[in-house]
C-alpha cells in the first residue's frame, strides 16, 4: 500500500469535516468494486466545500481474499464513508465494523457529484447517519 498525502488548503475552521473514500479506477467516477480497487481517493468534506486529502494505492496481486480486504480497510480507516460500485457481504460487514459507512452506487457516479451532495447535506440538516459519522469523527 502506498499512501500519498495531498498538502494544500485545509478545511480546518470550516466546521465539521468528514473524510470520504472513493473506490475509483480513474479519479473521476465511483467505478470500482471495493475488493478489487487498486486505488482510493480520500476527500475531506465540510459544509463549505471539499478537497482531495490522500490517495491510497494497492499494487499487490493477492490471493488471500481476507488479507486483501483487511489491507484496503486499513488504508481507508480514517474515512467515515466509503463509496464503491460493488462490495461483497463479508467485506461490507468488515467495513461497517471499522465504523465506515459503505455506499454502493449501481452505475458509475461522478465523484464531484457525490461530494457536492455531501456538502449540501452538511450545510443543511444532515440525516441521522451523517450525524452519527460526525460524532464519531469528532471523538477521534
Number of H- or I-type helical stretches: 4
The helix-strand sequence is EEEEEHEHEEHH
Counting copies of identical and different chains, the oligomeric state is single chain
Shape annotation: globular
Task: Give the radius of gyration.
Answer: 14 Å
Give the N-terminus to C-terminus distance in angstroms. 23 Å
The strand line-up of the biggest sheet is 1-5-4-2-6-7
How would a crystallographer describe the biggest sheet? Answer: 6 strands, mixed
Assess the beta-strand content as a share of residues: 25-35%
Low-confidence stretches: none
The number of E-state strands comes to: 8
Task: Summarize it.
The protein is an alpha/beta fold.
Task: Give a description of the structure.
By secondary structure, the chain is of the alpha/beta class. It is 31% helix and 28% strand. The chain is built from 4 helices and 8 strands. The chain has helices at 65-75, 89-97, 111-123, 128-138, and strands spanning 2-5, 18-23, 29-30, 39-46, 49-57, 81-84, 101-104, 109-110. The strands form 2 sheets. The chain has a 6-stranded mixed beta sheet with strand order 1-5-4-2-6-7, with helices on both faces. Strands 3-8 form a two-stranded antiparallel ribbon. The longest helix has 13 residues, at 111-123. The model has no long low-confidence stretch (mean pLDDT 89).
